[in-house]
Amino acid sequence: MIYRLLYKIILFLIFPFVFIYALFESIKQRDWNFIENKFGSILKTKNINNLCIHCASLGEVNGARNFINETSKSNNIVISTNTISGKNRAKELFPDLDIVYFPFDYRFIVGLWLKNLNVKTVLIYETEIWPNFYQICYENGINIAVINARISKHIISGSSFIKENYKKALACCKIILCKSGYEKEKYESIGVEENKLLTIGNLKYSYIPDYTDDLSSVRNKKNYEKNRKTLDELDKYSEINKLTFLEKTRIHENQKGKYLLMASTHYPDEKYFLSLIVDLVTSGFIVVIAPRHIERANEIYKFFKSNNVAIHIFSELKENKQYLDEKFSGVLILDTFGDLPKFYYGARLIYVGGGYSKRGVQNIIEPSTYGRPIIVGPNIDNFYEEIINLRKDKGITIIEDDKWTPVQQNIAKQVNDIYKLDDLVLDQMGSIAKNYTLKFNDVLDNYLKILKEQKIIN
User: Fold this and answer.
1) Which helix (H) or strand (E) holds 66?
2) What is the mean pLDDT of the chain?
3) What does the alpha-carbon distance between residue 238 and residue 248 come to, in Å, rounded to a whole number?
4) Dist. CA 249–CA 122, nearest whole Å
5) By percentage, how much of the chain surpasses pLDDT 70?
6) How much is the CA Rg of the chain, to the nearest whole Å?
7) Residues pairing with 161 in the sheet
């Protein structure tokens, strides 16, 4: 009881700051729905919805894409999100669905929000645990469940205040479908009842590569390795594909298979990779950097400018209908939504960012489906089981820390060693990752089956 009381006191004390934040964000983004929804008001929805799927931000919206598409065939869905970028992405992917902002976790606000939506079930994608929201759903007979469930290791090692509030909230869930056995163990460690927990697998394995060029049918075949020769031949002789690659990436065809792609980077990825990037650029290569948060693009641009590295912004090239010169060597910053997949299959090597941040490594499943070698930093907790299992088959490389070597120098050495490997070896590494990932493409069916059996969705 003391922890619940303390939570209420904290909410009371921060309320003025919460209001100011919501007002500031609404003005800044020119979206008054933000403050309205956050305080429980939902003026009008297009549909009569029975199911709410909550995706915290843009990354979760992308991750739940196939699940939402399939579930919407037999359910009327409203999507909730915390961020404006998440809402914009949801509107882009699901123009016919209602999109709202998730409410602040005050009982009177949550009650009003749920009353206005009038849904029968709420599915939380991955890890959003709000004590009052979960409790009010339970009190009002609204099914609440967590799918693709994960929980931060910082919570497990954190204060009793957080763990006890989370435990009480999660007790309100009908079921918690964990993305791995590793995550299930973490839920158990904070006292969640074992009978509420099931390990189903990572929903991100349901990702379907978005190929739109003339090689789609070959790239999307399960056995990547057997089709590699055909793919190479088509790449070599297809003039249409060369023009498609140039148009999508603004990179000259001769750079395909030579550039390093740094996907979903977090600070301090660019700083730690500086020595490696300078080495590659000096050797005539391109490094494509796609920050996880696009608003960091300007900061990254200034960083490389100050270090005398040639640099271009993708959106500017696209807007001005320009292309990188064949002899360009430097950094290309990808600062647009939805364009990252276009760069995957043409990369020599893909670094998936976040492994040097507190947040941890980002989604390694999506890039693995493109059949290119993947490297990650040492903090792999977000995808621990997926990465460890993939590493057993040598389908991914973790840049291990070396306490005797400065981090920049350590990264430069380890990644340069991989970068210089024979093309055939790199192709084999990529094919291992792709074939491993495609083994789990029935995971979505398993989720839908269990949720229907539990009468959580129609």
Assistant:
1) helix 65-71
2) 89
3) 16
4) 39
5) 92
6) 23
7) none
Q: Residue 278 to residues 268, 302, 311, 352, 409: CA-CA distances in angstroms?
A: 16, 15, 12, 19, 12
Yes or no: say if 214 and 242 are a contact pair by the CB < 8 Å rule. no
Can you read off the two tokens belonging to residue 96? 């016919």
Contacts of 5 (CB under 8 A, 6+ apart): none
Calpha distance 400→407 (Å, rounded):
10
* pLDDT for position 453: 95
Q: Which amino acid is at 150?
A: R
Lookup: tokens for 273: 């990779």
Average pLDDT on 216-221 reads: 53
User: With left for phi above 0 and alpha for psi between -120 and 50, is residue 193 left, alpha or beta?
Assistant: beta
Domains, in order of start, for the chain: 21-202+442-453 (3.40.50.11720), 216-438 (3.40.50.2000)
CB 349 within 8 A of CB 373: yes
Q: Report the run of H or E that residue 114 belongs to, with start and end.
A: helix 107-117
Are residues 450 and 177 in contact, defined by beta-carbon separation less than 8 angstroms? yes
214: number of Cβ within 10 Å: 13
- Residue where the block lists tokens 């606000």: 109
* Six-digit token string for 261: 């792609």
